[in-house]
Write a structure and sequence with these properties.
CATH topology of the largest domain: Purple Acid Phosphatase, chain A, domain 2
Strand order of the largest sheet: 4-3-7-6-5-10-11
Structural class: alpha/beta
CATH architecture of the largest domain: 4-Layer Sandwich
Largest sheet: 7 strands, mixed
Radius of gyration: 26 Å
Number of strands: 26
């Protein structure tokens, strides 16, 4: 049946769905009828089978499916979420009240948000009803288009099967990343719309906390500007400490900062400098050990997954610096840094080298899983793939926050990912803690 020229209700012999058993269910975030945000990743934390059913208020077989699910789902402790595709939210509210629907209803008007992800469209039309059974591990185990008594029997049997099976719990870890912040604390007005700054980044990260309890925050270097004063540098470091970074690579501008060694020794930031350090005073030869400019590496466990984080600062990024400065630096070859075993489930390189150089690095060092780039200030709208690694980069001046959500199976093996560059616009509120730091820095000493 075609309804209002926009929606299509398929008969029992409708077209087969575009998913296979075992495919990963696409993540999503929708709001319920009370405007509360609900994500699939959050639903899966309930650790039970999930039935996701798309419906329209005009669809009689959709209602029949809901009524049957009210009987079936409790037997198998399944979480049922309904997704209404009506354009009018009030219709969904009235429908839920009239039929006493007890399941959460999410709203996706005309299926514009996740309809493509879940293969709802047939040309310009949307298929309803359409139901998915998703395992606690996040895999799609059953897909049904249309609904009748025969489908009810199949759905019941499949739900029983999924509920009885012992699933290896998958893990999901969100890696938030920045690079080339250039000391940007507040929004920059060099564009038509104001973007960026740690004051917006910290606010964005706090909004993400509930959705991603397992997360990392990483930076690939040049968090300071080239000419940062002691007071400017100290303020940026305080802001980064407030943001809660797990590991921070060092860039050329950071090493050029006159107070850098005090920063490292002070321990405000978890600086990682795997291949660069300072020559010891009066060092007679190049084989003498370098004084560290940061930790040689950092290991972090999130979501039960062990992450090993290294950094690479390309010597070529210092080509325009005065010789009296660069003569004090000492570099290790990346082959020396990356020799030996992986020693982790997932290996991340914070690379201050630029996208093209990072592709060469990933091709040569195939133990790498993720390369977070910097220095070149490029924006990668989607990850590059080279060797066995994904290469990501978020641009400059904290205009964007990078986010890559990594998914692992029950054996902590990387399976897939979701990638996003989130613009840090003025729509985000100022983070009060960083706003207070900035305000305090502008207050004359006599007034403090």
């Amino acid at each position: 049946m075609i309804f209002a020229g926009a929606l299509l209700l398929l008969p029992a012999n409708g077209r087969a769905a575009g998913f296979s058993a075992g495919d990963r269910a696409p993540d999503f975030e929708l709001t319920d009828l009370n405007d509360k945000a609900v994500s699939l990743s959050g639903i899966l934390r309930e650790d039970r089978p999930v039935v996701l059913s798309f419906f329209g208020t005009w669809c009689e077989s959709c209602l029949k499916e809901m009524q049957d699910l009210a009987e079936i789902a409790p037997k198998y402790k399944a979480a049922v979420y309904l997704v209404g595709v009506d354009a009018d939210k009030d219709k969904l509210v009235r429908f839920a009240e009239k039929h006493k629907i007890q399941f959460p209803i999410l709203w996706d008007p005309k299926a514009k948000t996740i309809g493509r992800k879940y293969d709802l469209f047939r040309g310009a039309f949307v298929v309803v009803p359409k139901a998915f059974i998703i395992s606690p591990a996040g895999s799609i185990e059953y897909v049904s288009e249309s609904y009748d008594d025969e489908k009810k029997a199949v759905l019941t049997a499949k739900l029983a099967e999924v509920a009885a099976k012992k699933w290896s719990k998958s893990a999901e870890v969100a890696v938030f990343f920045t690079g080339s912040a250039n000391g940007c604390l507040e929004p920059s007005y060099i564009h038509k719309q104001a973007y960026g700054g740690f004051i917006k980044l910290a606010s964005f990260l706090k909004q993400q906390l509930a959705k991603y309890p397992d997360r990392l925050l990483l930076d690939s270097g040049d968090f300071l500007s080239y000419s940062a004063s002691a007071s400017q540098g100290g303020l940026v470091l305080d802001a980064m400490a407030a943001a809660g970074y797990d590991a921070v690579g060092v860039g050329d501008q950071d090493l050029h900062f006159s107070g850098f060694m005090n920063v490292y020794r002070g321990g405000k930031l978890p600086l990682v400098a795997s291949n660069v350090g300072w020559k010891a005073a009066g060092e007679p030869g190049s084989d003498a050990p370098a004084l560290p400019a940061g930790l040689p590496e950092k290991t972090v466990t999130a979501g039960g997954v062990k992450f090993r984080i290294l950094s690479f600062t390309n010597a070529d990024t210092f080509s325009l610096y005065p010789e009296e400065f660069t003569a004090r630096l000492k570099f290790r070859d990346l082959k020396e840094v990356l020799k030996g075993e992986k020693n982790a489930d997932f290996l991340i390189l914070l690379s201050h080298a630029g996208a093209e150089e990072n592709k060469k690095i990933a091709e040569e060092f195939r133990q790498l899983d993720l390369v977070i780039g910097g220095h070149s200030q490029e924006v990668l709208a989607k990850p590059l793939k080279a060797g066995n690694a994904l290469i990501v980069q978020s641009g400059d001046n904290l205009q964007n926050a990078g986010k890559i959500v990594l998914r692992f199976d029950g054996n902590r093996k990387f399976t897939d990912y979701a990638y996003e560059l989130a613009p840090l616009t003025n729509d985000l509120p100022d983070d009060p803690q960083i706003a207070a730091l900035i305000k305090n820095s502008k207050t004359p000493a006599k007034q403090k």
